[in-house]
Specification:
- The chain starts with a helix and ends with a strand.
- It has four helices and six strands; from the N terminus they run ααββαβββαβ.
- A six-stranded mixed β-barrel has the order 1-5-2-4-3-6.
- The protein is an alpha/beta fold.
Length: 198
């Protein structure tokens, strides 16, 4: 935006200088051809215009470089702030683990006869950010009921409200309400989970 404004200001100045140059050139018409005074004046005016033009170009290049440097500095600062924010967000957790993540819904064929009731008795509702975890994450890695967990790559925090079958290891199941299509689309992925263990 600043660069465009800079171009428009200097562009307008160049147009004015060019029009003045053409005006002076017009004065050097054939009828004034023998006039030494007129030729000298046009020559001096031309030199002044050339000098002004060169000075304008130098100033334009200086201003343009300043604007570019300022823009680059702002972008660099924005990246640093973003990186710092991400780092601080991750340091709020003192535990992390790479696990396999699948998805499930509140359908009897994916859970049991009470698909809306989780292992600890919590009622699951569509829209909740909840996960089920394999039992080794509870016994070995220290996750607890109602523990807040962040899943890298997903927004917000998820709450541990359910347990998975005993056969699973290092695994989480992300609750997706009644949306079977979304759950199937998720499939099976490797993710990193973060939590704060006291």
């Amino acid at each position: 935006m600043h660069t465009k404004k800079l171009f428009s200001v200097y562009g307008l100045t160049l147009v004015i200088l060019l029009s003045q140059f053409l005006s002076f050139s017009a004065n050097a018409s054939p009828r004034n051809k023998n006039s030494t005074l007129t030729k000298t004046k046009v020559s001096e005016d031309t030199k002044q215009l050339q000098a002004a033009y060169k000075a304008l170009l130098v100033e334009f290049e200086r201003k343009s470089a300043t604007v570019k440097a300022s823009s680059k500095a702002k972008k660099t600062k924005a990246k640093l702030v973003k990186a710092s924010f991400a780092a601080n967000r991750n340091t709020a957790y003192n535990k992390s683990l790479r696990v396999t993540a699948t998805a499930y819904t509140s359908h009897a064929n994916q859970t049991d006869s009470t698909p809306n009731i989780a292992a600890w008795g919590d009622r699951l509702r569509p829209g909740m950010k909840a996960i089920a975890v394999s039992r080794d994450l509870l016994k070995v890695y220290g996750l607890k009921h109602k523990q807040k967990v962040r899943i890298k790559g997903l927004k917000g925090e998820y709450v541990v409200l359910d347990k998975m079958n005993k056969r699973w290891r290092k695994k989480i199941d992300i609750y997706m309400g009644m949306n079977k299509r979304k759950a199937f689309s998720w499939g099976r992925r490797k993710v990193e989970i973060l939590w704060n263990q006291i």
